[in-house]
Specification:
This protein has 230 residues and is mostly helical. Helix content is 67%, strand content 0%. It is elongated, with a radius of gyration of 21 Å.
Length: 230
């Protein structure tokens, strides 16, 4: 496995943003008189849309093809943009994939909170929602990124920092939704135990459909949390 700047990721296309997207204007704004200032708004909107498409395509590619099969070119093709446009937004392969996993993790966190906008007394529903975070494409994509980071020094530091940020946010949301009081001894470890259990279920689900056993484990954990958290 190699980062951008080596192997097939390096060729004559070295100018960042040298190409324009298929069907979309160039990502750069020269600021010359040829284009009025009023046009910058639509260009910025298109740029945001392009970035979002690249991030979502990157997670899908990573989940389906792993690190070795997910190059900038592959992601750009899936997103429907040129490789030059992709490199305009993300200068390196590491930039693209760490940003993609973080973006989707943030989206999932917002979605998790949105499931219980006014809170809930049903801890089983919360446990099931937390477990779902670890059984979808995002977890699979993140896992490929972690494995790649274990072998690549250049990627390891960034993924370690990303995992720490995502982990803290997931823990914070779980505490919130479970109405857990972390000033009580042992409660923090109980919540972390839930997250560790959910990650384990996610790993088990990678090879086989583990939904039957997962439902029973979710029910048991919800009962344990009711006793532990009161």
């Amino acid at each position: 496995m190699s980062a951008v700047g080596a192997s097939d990721e390096t060729d004559a296309e070295t100018g960042i943003g040298a190409e324009t997207e298929t069907g979309i204007d160039a990502e750069t704004d020269t600021g010359t008189d040829a284009g009025p200032v009023a046009d910058r708004g639509p260009k910025q909107d298109r740029s945001r849309v392009t970035r979002k498409r690249l991030l979502e395509a990157a997670v899908s590619c990573l989940a389906e093809h792993g690190w070795a099969g997910s190059t900038v070119s592959v992601v750009a093709e899936r997103a429907g943009v040129s490789r030059g446009a992709a490199q305009h937004h993300f200068r390196t392969r590491e930039d693209l994939f760490t940003a993609a996993v973080e973006y989707v993790a943030e989206e999932r966190s917002l979605a998790l909170r949105a499931l219980f906008p006014e809170g809930t007394a049903d801890r089983r529903a919360v446990v099931a929602a937390v477990v779902d975070l670890f059984t979808g494409p995002l977890f699979r994509a993140a896992l490929h990124l972690w494995v790649a980071a274990s072998d690549e020094e250049q990627l390891r530091c960034r993924v370690t920092e990303l995992e720490a940020r995502v982990g803290r946010e997931t823990h914070r949301i779980a505490v919130e939704l479970l109405r857990a009081d972390e000033t009580v001894p042992g409660v923090r470890e109980t919540v972390q135990g839930l997250l560790d259990m959910a990650r384990g279920l996610g790993l088990a689900n990678l090879l086989t459909d583990d939904s039957g056993r997962r439902d029973r484990v979710v029910a048991q954990w919800a009962a344990l949390l009711d006793k532990a958290l009161g």
